[in-house]
Structure formats: structure tokens, C-alpha cells
Amino acid sequence: MSFEYQMPFKVVTARAIIIRREDGSLFGVLHRKDGCYATPGGKLEMGEAPDAALLRELEEEKFRLIGYEPNWRSRISVDYYAERQALNIWYIFLVDDVQVGTSKEYLDARWFDQTQDMWYPRMREKILLAVKTYFPDMLNVDVSVLQSW
Predict the structure, then answer these.
(1) Which residues, 6 or more positions from 65, have their beta carbon under 8 angstroms from its beta carbon?
(2) Which range of residues forms the domain containing residue 47?
(3) What is the CATH classification number for the domain harbouring 48?
(4) Are 120 and 74 in contact (CB under 8 A)?
(5) Among 5, 39, 115, 136, which residue has the fewest nearby CB atoms (within 10 Å)?
(6) Three-state SS for 77?
(7) Within its chain, how far is the Cα of 38 from the centroid?
(8) What is the pLDDT along the chain (149 residues), one digit of tens a residue?
(9) On the CB side of 38, how many CA atoms lie within 13 Å of its CA?
């Protein structure tokens, strides 16, 4: 007996939560003048694995992660945005730095202190909870009020 069903996603993305080892700063990307910052990454292509999609997106956006551990694929946070029917798969990286090349994929890319909220709505909290899960020593803010997320 075969069972078919449709997933409730219009889009699935693979993204990188990038934490700077030196100070816990978070790396963000601005794609639109009227938008907010997001984590680097993008949509999966048909049949593409999330980790392969993320590597492709980082290359397309001309970001080179410097000094990251090879076990990044085991650090995953997943989030579903019901309004957009978007499933986001976030891989968490601890790096020395990010080398930023020139790309038409974004308008700006930079480091943010964890106290800054330049992110899309509710994204900062979800990023910080992922940091707390995988790198609690790198968390520089109190997220106790977010435990229920």
C-alpha cells in the first residue's frame, strides 16, 4: 500500500547561523533595501539535500567561512513560518571570520552584536535559541524568557 501526501511547505530553505568565535557576533545579510537582515542561505532546488543547498548558496553569495569545524552538519535548528509556509533548516557554524566577496545576491553583509535586532521578525530569538542549544558559552544575552519557543 502506498501512501502519498503533500507537505505543507511552499518553500524549504537551508541557512547558516554564523557565530564569530572571538566575540559571539552573528553574521547577517541584507537582500532588499526595504527588508531586514537574514542569515545567509536560500531555497533548495528540486531533489537537493539541505547541506548541499547551503554550500551552493554560500558560494553563490561569495561568502567563505574561515576556521569552522567540519561537523557543522550535525548542528541543526529547524523552524516553520506558517504565514509563508516556509520550512527553514539552519546549520550552526562557529567561525573565526567570514570573507565577503562581491555578489549581486545581496546589498550588505556584516556582523551584529547579539543585542542588536536587525533581523526579520522573530528571527533574532530563534537564532539566539540555536546559539544557546549548540554553543551556550557563546551566548551573550539572556534568553530565559524564550524557553517556551
Answers:
(1) 16, 18, 58, 93, 95, 98
(2) 11-146
(3) 3.90.79.10
(4) no
(5) 5
(6) strand
(7) 7
(8) 555 656 778 899 999 999 999 999 999 999 999 989 999 999 999 889 999 999 999 999 999 999 999 999 999 999 888 888 889 999 999 999 999 999 998 999 999 999 998 888 888 889 999 999 999 999 998 876 555 44
(9) 18
The verdict on residue 112 lying in a domain is yes
Domain count, the chain: 1
- Give the residues across from 42 on adjacent strands: 14
Which SS3 state, helix, strand or coil, does residue 87 take? strand
CA–CA dist 98, 94 (Å, integer) = 11
Residue 139 domain-assigned (yes or no): yes
